[in-house]
Write a structure and sequence with these properties.
Helix content is about 75%, strand content about 0%. The protein has two domains: about 50 residues, no CATH class; about 60 residues. The protein is rod-shaped, with a radius of gyration of 49 Å. It is an all-alpha fold.
């Protein structure tokens, strides 16, 4: 038997005001769902057997309880920010290490090139000295490297 059948049978039997009230309650239960059912049970005869407790909406809410969601949201935001900072630090550390490695490689390359330039300069000086020495010598005795 469904609630719709009960409502139909109650209205059909027409037991007066009592059936009209019961039928109205059943319609409210169908339309408003479980909240209305619990309210009607609590306020009706069954409610006398159930100990009355403070309803959640009537419970006093302390300042700490009101701030709890805000504190939780703030804590989550702080954690997210710390995570982002940690990720940024790791990335920066990686970039700096990579850059330092490249600087060391470039420094070594510059040292190698400086040594090569000095070597070539000394060879050039020696060649120039030989040419000057040969220009002072009799012709036909020229020798190049």
């Amino acid at each position: 038997v469904t609630l719709a059948q009960i409502i139909y049978e109650t209205e059909k039997s027409g037991d007066g005001a009592e059936s009209g009230a019961a039928s109205k309650k059943l319609r409210d239960i169908i339309q408003r769902g479980g909240e209305k059912l619990i309210t009607s049970l609590r306020d009706g005869p069954v409610g006398k057997f159930v100990p009355q407790s403070v309803r959640p909406e009537e419970m006093p809410v302390s300042e700490a309880e009101r701030r709890r969601p805000l504190a939780r949201m703030l804590e989550q935001s702080k954690e997210a920010l710390e995570k982002l900072e940690h990720m940024a630090d790791d990335r920066m550390r990686g970039l700096v290490n990579s850059a330092i490695g490249q600087v060391h490689q470039l420094h070594n390359e510059i040292g190698r090139l400086q040594a090569r330039v000095e070597e070539l300069e000394s060879r050039l000086v020696r060649m120039q000295q030989r040419r000057q020495g040969q220009s002072d010598a009799p012709p036909g005795d020229e020798k190049d490297e």
